[in-house]
Amino acid sequence: EPEVTQTPSHQVTQMGQEVILRCVPISNHLYFYWYRQILGQKVEFLVSFYNNEISEKSEIFDDQFSVERPDGSNFTLKIRSTKLEDSAMYFCASSEWDRVDTGELFFGEGSRLTVL
Amino acid sequence: AQSVTQLGSHVSVSEGALVLLRCNYSSSVPPYLFWYVQYPNQGLQLLLKYTSAATLVKGINGFEAEFKKSETSFHLTKPSAHMSDAAEYFCAVTRTGRRALTFGSGTRLQVQP
After folding, report:
1. Is residue B50 classed exposed, middle or buried when 0-12, 13-18 and 19+ CB atoms within 10 A define those classes?
2. What does residue A85 show for φ and ψ, rounded to 5 degrees?
3. Residues 6 or more apart from B63 whose CB is under 8 A from it?
4. For burial by CB atoms within 10 Å, which of A98, A110, B75, B88 has the most?
């Protein structure tokens, strides 16, 4: 069964360092997303991406964050200068269709980021 | 703005008992509503969704949910709990034209033998 894969599963970094989280979406999917979940809090939307452009983003997704599809298979989330409050589980998701009422979001297992 | 509230961060039931996980939504426009399940060390998986068709929605693993506009609710039920149902369950809402899902805080379901 096709699945979304994320690497690394866990990353520990020092405050101020750059981090790149990687995702391989399902191969025929065109719409990509990042969500995050701070421990004990809700899953929060960060950004959606289609056709090499951000299609929607939340207020969390500030200038410290960027996304990229560097090749035909990977989708990355970069945090330029990590803060303690960036510690969270980051989920990548992909879908075949743009409309959530017709297309299911498929989530990866998550990348846990710990900022010290 | 849209939001969902899940009542009860932890629910414990006996195997074979009814499962009822509560979700109330707030939305000024017709909502699309979802239930996702997260098993340990796995990503979120769609259980079922309401997108303005039938108000009683059936999902995977014997779960169903009923959209009640008058009560602004979308509670998740299963007639008979199984040990394998132990997981965290998330209610989520969005609306037409949006791509972002707004999630609730989740309910952890424990199933006792």
Report:
1. buried
2. -75, -5
3. B19, B35, B47, B48, B76, B77, B78
4. A110
B18 vs chain A: nearest CA distance in angstroms?
26
Q: Which residues of B touch A35 (CB under 8 A)?
A: 101, 103
The C-alpha atoms of residue B10 and residue A96 are separated, in whole angstroms, by 33
**Cα–chain center distance at B77:** 8
Predicted confidence (pLDDT) per residue in A47-82, tens digit = 999 999 999 999 999 999 999 998 878 999 999 999
Q: DSSP code of B84?
A: G
Q: Using one digit for the tens of pLDDT, what is the confidence trace for B62-89?
A: 999 999 999 999 999 999 999 999 999 9
Question: Per the CB < 8 Å rule, is B98 touching A33?
Answer: no
Beta strands at A111-115 and B10-14: parallel, antiparallel or unpaired: unpaired
Alpha carbons A92 and A107: distance in angstroms, whole number: 6
Give the bridge partners for B3, in sequence order.
B26
Residues of A numbered 15-54 whose beta carbons fall under 8 angstroms of chain B's beta carbons: which are they? 31, 33, 35, 41-45, 48
What is the spatial distance between Cα A18 and Cα B41, in angstroms, rounded to a whole number? 25
Among B42, B52, B101, the residue with its CB nearest the CB of A100 is B101
Tokens standing for residue B31: 């909502």
Distance between CA A115 and CA A15 in Å, rounded? 6
